[in-house]
Amino acid sequence: MLRRSFMHVLTFALLFAAALATAPAAAQTPTFDYGPYRSGVPTPQQVLGYNAGEQFTPHHELERYLKTISDAAKDRMRLVAYGKTYEGRTLYYLIISSPENLARVEEIRAAAAKLADPRTTNPDEAAQIAKTNPAVAWLSYNVHGNESSSTEAAIQVIYQLAAGTDQRTMKLLSNLVIILDPLINPDGRERYVHFFRSSMGKEPNPDPASVEHQERWPGGRQNHYLFDLNRDWAWQSQIESQARIQHYLRWNPVVHVDYHEMGANSTYFFAPPAEPVHTAIAPLLAKWYDIYGKGNAAAFDRHGIRYFTREGFDIFYPSYGDSWPAFNGATGMTYEQAGHSAAGLVIDLGEKQGQLTLKQRAWQHFLTSLATLETTADNREARLRDLADFRRAAIAAGRQGPYQSLYLVPGRDREVIAGLVEMLQRNGVEVQRTTAAVSLSGARDASGREVSGQKQLPAGTYVVDTAQPSGILARALLEPEAKLPTPFFYDITAWSLPLAMGVEGYWEAKAPSVARERVTSVALPAGGVEAPSHIVAYLFPSDTLAAGRLAYRLLHEDINCHVATRAFKLGGRDYPAGTIIVPTSRNPQNLAERVRELAAAERVQVTGVSTGMSDDGTDLGSSRMRLLRKPKIAVVTDSPVSTTEYGALWFLLEQRLGMKFTAVRAENLRGLDLKDYSVLIFPPDFGQGRGWGRTVDRGVATRIAEWIRGGGLVIGLEGGGVLATQKRAGWTGVTYRYPRKSDDDARIAEERRQEQAQQPGGAQRPAAPPPQQKQDEKEKEAELERKLMPYAQREFEFRKESIPGAIMRLMVDTTHPLGFGLDKEIYILNTQNPIFDLAARDNVIHYPKENFHVSGYLTDEVAKKLPHTAHLVRQRVGGGHVVMFAGNAIFRGFWESGTKLLTNAILFGNVP
Length: 912
Fold this sequence. Notes:
Radius of gyration: 29 Å
CATH architecture of the largest domain: 3-Layer(aba) Sandwich
Number of helices: 28
């Protein structure tokens, strides 16, 4: 699955490298013959022209196979088209069961829904349903497009269930309703299949050095917008996720398996998972991980296939294809087969390991598919009972502890809170809305801080009670901090949605009695223009995303807009700094019509004024009302850009903000005509700046520096921000460090190498020796301890210097153009971000001296390095500016609080 980028999985790689390097090929030749089979159902070979695992099946051929076999075996299966991808490919799943079960499948589904909501059944009724109802099992294949063997396995699993007449197959069909999704990510898989087919010669070449084993950027892992769909189950930013989970929630499966691949030199992973398992689900599901693990182990042991469990893949982060179903009461599991994109049709693993084929990989996924279904059938009644018990326990748990009811206050940006409420509803979480004002006592804010005295909240405040069937998931997504029982984990360790989305929220241990109504939809306010008969200018604050879109659209139509750099009062109304002023003079004659149309389209309330003289503060004609430039945006892409981080930026600009941009390959920067653009964005790279350091040489850096001095705006995110520092391209005087000492050492070595390579005439200047400072005895002792550190302790020490994903409370300069419309505090996710030292000025967002850590893993060693450092810095360079983010402001498309920051950077980055 390769869940994280190269740098992020270094710990995981160190842990398993030695063990996996000697993994042998499987002990037996794969065979899919588990007959006898019905003669009227065509085999994969008869439909596709090849047997399962002999070739990669493109989407249109898989589609033809699904339609053919579901039509031939209509007594056992139904094909459901449940959505479309961004590239227009159809998403399918199959409902598979016995003819008797299919005849009453809606009745079975309705009974499963009753089990999943204990409020509709008493324990005796639930026990009766568990005794008689088939269990729903859901199998998902190929969420990562270049982990391609699982769809080939799914093809054979479908045939087995459609045609098999053996005793085991008949038992599965009788006891289960199987939902089988053969291809979650068609766009990514198609990208990989096309790459492989166009790269392979007449025959597959097993040499790992062959081009067919070297997938190019961006690879086929992600979907069209380069989102990792395996991290999108909870956030559901992508249409594939939204469509799939809408159907998932209708079926309430008792087990869900997500099929993946890892490095070709590995073996096979299945449950039980590694620690940590989230404390909310661990006691309720632990026994089932053991039961399913033993079922898979028995299947592999029969064939002498090697595997491992309890290592590497945890169930903590709630947005994976194993963890999200687990938070809903299913036994959610990840299965990992050796292979991945480098394996192709066949790869040579070395003299002692032999070759690994696609057929071998597909066969092993096929074996665990059947073993999982058989384990579910054998434990059908008990697993159904436990699903009901899990959902009942969720209601009981929601009545305990300090985080029982969360009140979400609609702020100035209704689009953001609407997005949060709709996200919760897509997750199956019930949301209510107060119909009267409410007073809270003893409340905590969304970050967990105690609120003194009474907190008055207006009518229309949204409420999430965690005493509901989906309460365990609701609390996991909303509470400020998840308990982390171990420092060894696979992904980010904090994700609280109110903090991520910048929504004001308050937790109450016991919900007060107040009138409420169930929320079924969230209406956004209408936009329009309020204006007198005579208008000299149109005004609207830029403190919402919709306002930012409106400002951009006006500028894009060459309508002159200004931004107020100071607050003012006009016509009896207060206007904050960041207000957009659209004067009627020097603008098109159809200005009134376009403002009216665009304000309605973007749902922004615009006010027309009949005078430019303010009641108080700056007049509209003042030089403090700065003219905005039309953003003509170029975003640098391709290697060394981080694929998913570029995807998040691409999706935000195109889908959320409606901002047009040109994607420019990094290798083409040397010849790019920069005068065609006013904004140049460098996304995060692989290596936190080191990738950019190897790509942007001195000649390119000099050209860009000249363009900046001429008025250009560079925006650098994380590694892109590092590129702009004094130690990289030299565009600014900002300096940076890394949280981890080893990263700093690598940075220094890389910078020294670049400096030597760029000497005139190729001459290399001898590196200056490091300053010789006398170490005291304590430092010498610490160095000796590091050198003599036991091997088994190294990973823990590595973790102590990392920030894998923790929420920080930072301070915002709201008087700065980049801080317009923001609150004085902002919550960011630190994912091993570089540390920017404070600049001489324009430190827009910074770490305070203390109390900045809110939740997630952070050691004292790293925390000491962060006070009074910058997260967002801007520096003027001649007539232009450079904006540097220490992190990625829009992490995985759900970190909404950074979206306004990036919008401000694009619109106001060059405002002096």
